[in-house]
Design goal:
With 295 residues, the chain is α+β, with helices and mostly antiparallel strands. It has helices at residues 5-15, 75-81, 92-102, 126-138, 144-161, 165-178, 192-195, 198-208, 224-234, 286-294; strands at residues 36-39, 45-50, 56-63, 86-87, 90-91, 105-110, 115-122, 215-220. The chain has a six-stranded mixed sheet with strand order 1-2-8-3-7-6. Strands 4-5 form a two-stranded antiparallel ribbon. α4 packs parallel to α9 (224-234).
């Protein structure tokens, strides 16, 4: 039958007074998911978050291998992103085909403090996925041809990004807060990609990756069987660095409130970036502030 949509819309609008904002209601209780914590035999911390009903799981590997630990720009990022481009006796294409055949997806993140590898896979293929992932994480070969391709692509991508006002605003804010010499304010330039070499990347991996100080997060519809598989490949034997080497960093100079204007001729858009320094992660208000920023 024919429905008069316009009459329904008018009826709904007549019930709402759009000049009066809705009443804000705070939730009475927030149910945070429970996370099991284990320390595996080799000292690696394992966090288990059981959720969902689908036969899919996710594994995150977190290392103290962010950019603030590197001696040269981009070494930290290259060390994690080039891991699947060659490991053990496997080539880049063979590693890619292995994960594709299993329906697994591999992703990487490198921040100022941490490097993270994330893999999504079907629960029935978890063992085969972890077997290759172990090789990728522990025995990357960093082939020179793959590093050259990665550098060329990354350099071109950064050149394009530096044309965006939003990127320029974010970079300028970080350097204003921390200075260009501080690890948090020292940002890569296109020329830094030309200075990379495989030996420096391999040395960074040797000095920053290992069982001690690492954290693994297993998420999804998982049970004790899946936790044992993770322990088998990443939790039984020591590997890599033999101590948690979390280096301190210099305290930045106190930044004064100021306005910065960065000119970008012929830009189609403008960007505004506002920020300030707050407390560190060990402050009791940090979790609440992180949630607030997410919302």
């Amino acid at each position: 039958p024919f429905v008069d949509v316009s009459n329904r819309i008018n009826h709904i609008n007549s019930m709402l007074n759009r000049a009066v904002p809705p009443v804000g209601v705070l939730p009475e209780k927030i149910n945070f998911p429970k996370v099991e914590t284990q320390i595996m035999p080799n000292g690696t911390q394992l966090l288990i978050h059981k959720s969902g009903s689908e036969d899919v799981c996710r594994i995150d590997l977190l290392f103290n291998a962010g950019s603030r630990y590197q001696n040269n720009c981009l070494e930290a990022r290259a060390a994690v992103e080039l891991m699947p481009e060659g490991a053990g006796h496997f080539t880049s294409s063979e590693i890619s085909e292995h994960f594709d055949y299993l329906g697994s997806f591999l992703d990487f993140t490198c921040t100022s403090d941490f490097a993270r590898l994330t893999v999504h896979t079907l629960r029935k293929h978890l063992a085969n996925t972890l077997e290759m992932l172990e090789l990728v994480v522990k025995q990357p070969t960093y082939p020179p041809d793959e590093q050259l391709t990665w550098s060329q692509n990354g350099k071109q991508a950064l050149i394009v990004s530096l044309e965006r006002p939003s990127i320029l605003a974010q970079r300028s804010l970080l350097q204003a807060l921390y200075s260009k010499m501080h690890p948090y304010g020292k940002l890569a330039s296109p020329e830094d990609f030309d200075m990379l070499n495989c030996s420096g990347i391999a040395d960074f991996h040797t000095n920053r990756y290992g069982a001690i100080g690492a954290t693994l997060l297993l998420t999804g519809n998982v049970e004790e069987k899946e936790a044992k598989l993770v322990e088998k490949f990443f939790g039984l034997t020591p590997w890599g660095i033999d101590k948690a080497n979390v280096q301190s960093y210099p305290q930045p100079n106190e930044a004064k409130a100021t306005n910065l204007f960065i000119g970008k001729p012929n830009a189609l858009q403008s960007a505004i970036c506002i920020g300030r320094k707050l407390f560190q992660r060990n402050h009791p208000d940090y979790p609440a502030m992180a949630i607030l920023c997410t919302l």
